[in-house]
Amino acid sequence: MRALTRLRGTRSAFPATSPEGGRTGGPVTPGAVPARAVAVAALVLAMAGPASAAAPADAPRADAPRTADPRAAAPPPSPAPMAVAPYLSLGWGDPPEPAKVMKETGVRWFSLAFVLSSGSCEPRWDGHRPLTGGVDERTVKAVRKAGGDVIPSFGGGLGHKLEQSCPDAASLAAAYQKVIDAYELRAIDIDIEMSAYRSAAAQRKMLGALGAVQRANPGLVTYITLPSYRSGPDSSLIDRAAEEGVEPDAWSIMPFSFVPSAKGEDMGLISTRAVDGLKNRLMSAYGYSETEAYKRSGVSSMNGITGEGETIRVADFRTIAAHAREHKLGRLTFWSLNRDRPCGARPYPAQDRCSGVAQKPWQYTKTLVRYGR
Fold first, then answer.
1. Which one of 10, 94, 110, 292 has the lowest number of neighbouring Cβ atoms within 10 Å?
2. Where in the sequence numbering do the catalytic residues fall?
3. Which of 41-50, 94-103, 174-183, 339-348 has the weakest average pLDDT?
């Protein structure tokens, strides 16, 4: 079975993943005058008499259509659903200001990366920042003040994983619960990769903890993110989850950074085929209908140049998002918002700050918001 790798960063590193390998690392524009306003104006003029109705010869007629002011700002984008939630790392590179991105793109949810272990069974952002009192808590508050919310992501490619540091499912569930309570969360993501994914013990521990958290927090939205081959993920974790009665709201696959590389190939098409493979795995494991299996499926892609030299362009995101809209997928995200900018004068690789391809700021995010509804 072929291995695959995926890039994703924590702190200053830029990571790559796989079941076999790992990550390394306004105003409203004025339009025509409403007919009701014209009628009211005419009535006022008629009641005032001829003297009041007089006007300069070059004054526009009250019923003449008005031309939109080209200087007026376009209406703000409509809000995107929870399913569209790009990854944002606050400990890696030059993190963008979420409120600004929300205003410019319409995105309202962010997957915050990553909650790791401090070396024991204690949750910390990137393994060292406390849950409260720092940049992470300030960011959560800022996003919520702007009308959005966050989905903390446990795991990722680098660092000590709670799924391996915690001795059992009960202690792991307690670690998850600390983060849920700290922010009064509505959703969480468990990104299981590399050695944690390859470990049957870590898989079982995570599933036991997730099941306990779901029972303790009714209504909490839960996602599992996992590696994928071109044909979709292997069935090990999905089958175990079904056997243990654990049902996340959606499973998100990472269809890129394949080994051997898919460099030069159609990454949009490859990604949609991998999602179809995920859908088939879910139908087999849970007995879902095709419609339900698609709703439980998701994509966690990457923007720009991947660790294996593949290029995922904005056009590929349109393909992925259109497929998501057609089948009503449960999640649509990517690594990462930090990279959703042109490199400009910066030489690539500057993976923690830009995508490595020609693009406009936040163009990948805007594409998912627009085409993935």
1. 94
2. 193
3. 41-50
